[in-house]
Structure to design on (357 residues):
């Protein structure tokens, strides 16, 4: 058993606040008051609330990932603008140097002399025309340089404003997404531990509260066999030694958070639902090939004894009831429904086309 277990409190106000924060697609548990057969907020029970919060968390994660990608695009854009600003600053400096050179050259070539003086001092009409041509060309170059400098300064100001707006938008977006994700995860964590608290009470009393029917969005499966949980990390394996079992571990453990949906690995019939002993809250399923699978340390069960189940159907939610050091699913394959007839689940699943990794 763990040395410490948190007993968190989840109230409808938190769920409503969560939906307002997310602002789109997630549906609040409080909306269940309008569901057929519902008796008001929370009528579906804490187990259903945890499922709904998992969905909300998935939506929040998707939004976070989309926002992160947008933020990266903003960052790249801002960096491009910063490079452009540096280049334009250098170009503007060159233009100003050119203006100085042109002005000095014009002065040296009598660009500042009056037209009357140029006519008087000219030795011939050809010299006068040449002087006028140089004067016109010089003025044109000066005017072009001034106009080009003016456009460069205007473009520089616009790009600077764009860069500032991009960085500001990036910072605001990242802050909002981080707060959203934190709120969703905190609310889900509170719901998980309250669910675990209810499961602990049931196991201590040795009485299962009955099946909690979860609204599962069924997926079309391409195989007859599946993993008992969709996302996981493998922990204690079959045959390994440890403090919590006398000789060897009789199954494969899947490290998953409390409240993770646990599914039947294949079609079958539920032959046992139990809420006491070392395995805590557990479900045992008999499959058509004569093998049994056990799902232990659950926080809730979603099926009743004698019920038929399909491959991939939710049969409960993971937890840490019974002789458990932390949240995980203990999955076992047996020749009989009872402890002592276990076989290694990893090659057994592999023979049926399911590879764990």
């Amino acid at each position: 058993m763990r040395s410490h277990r948190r007993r968190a409190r989840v109230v409808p106000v938190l769920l409503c606040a969560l939906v307002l924060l997310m602002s789109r697609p997630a549906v609040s548990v409080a909306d269940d008051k309008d569901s057929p057969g519902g008796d008001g907020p929370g009528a579906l029970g804490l187990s259903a609330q945890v499922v709904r919060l998992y969905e909300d968390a998935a939506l929040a994660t998707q939004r976070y990932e989309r926002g992160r990608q947008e933020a990266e695009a903003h960052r790249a854009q801002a960096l491009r603008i910063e490079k452009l600003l540096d280049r334009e600053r250098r170009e503007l400096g060159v233009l100003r140097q050119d203006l100085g050179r042109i002005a000095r050259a014009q002065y040296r070539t009598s660009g500042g002399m009056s037209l009357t003086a140029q006519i008087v001092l000219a030795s011939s009409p050809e010299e006068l025309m040449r002087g006028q041509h140089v004067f016109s060309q010089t003025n044109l170059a000066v005017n072009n340089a001034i106009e080009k400098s003016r456009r460069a300064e205007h473009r520089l100001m616009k790009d600077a404003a764009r860069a500032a707006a991009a960085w500001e938008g990036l910072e605001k977006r990242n802050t909002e997404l981080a707060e959203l994700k934190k709120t969703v995860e905190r609310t889900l964590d509170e719901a998980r531990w309250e669910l675990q608290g209810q499961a602990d009470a049931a196991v201590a009393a040795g009485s299962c509260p009955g099946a909690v029917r979860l609204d599962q969005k069924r997926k079309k499966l391409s195989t007859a066999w599946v993993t008992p949980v969709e996302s996981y990390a493998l922990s204690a394996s079959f045959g390994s030694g440890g403090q919590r079992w006398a000789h060897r571990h009789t199954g494969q453990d899947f490290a998953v958070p409390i409240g993770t949906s646990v599914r039947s690995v294949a079609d079958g019939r539920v032959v046992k639902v139990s809420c006491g002993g070392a395995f805590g809250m557990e479900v045992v399923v008999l499959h058509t090939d004569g093998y049994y699978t056990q799902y232990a340390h659950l926080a809730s069960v979603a099926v009743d004894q004698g019920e038929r189940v399909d491959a991939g159907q939710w049969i409960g939610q993971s937890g840490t009831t019974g002789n458990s050091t932390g949240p995980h699913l203990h999955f076992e394959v047996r020749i009989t429904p009872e402890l002592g007839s276990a076989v290694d689940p990893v090659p057994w699943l592999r023979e049926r086309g399911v590879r764990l990794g």
User: Anything to note?
Assistant: The two ends are 27 Å apart (CA to CA). Strands lie at 233-234, 252-255, 261-263, 268-275, 281-287, 292-301, 308-309, 314-318, 329-334, 342-343.
